[in-house]
Amino acid sequence: xxxxxxxxLGLLLLAFWIHELxxxxxxxxxxxxxxxxxxxxxxxxxxxxxxxxxIFYGWRTxxxxxxxxxxxxxxxxQDASRxxxxxxxxxxx
Length: 93
Description:
Structural class: mainly alpha
């Protein structure tokens, strides 16, 4: 491996670390379940740069998927409720 490859790899990893750190700091506090979770995540990502950033990336990906799933479930329930109300209204007429 050449020195250029290692420098490029290092720059990519640095960019990934900075991206995850900025993303973490841009999240509102209510996204985190605990009171001190945001500062704990910051410490993990800041003091264990590569490993912390990878773990945080996995956590945020998992929670974003969970949030999207919960949102789609809420929308499906609202849609089913609306259909049931419309069907009830048609039966009464």
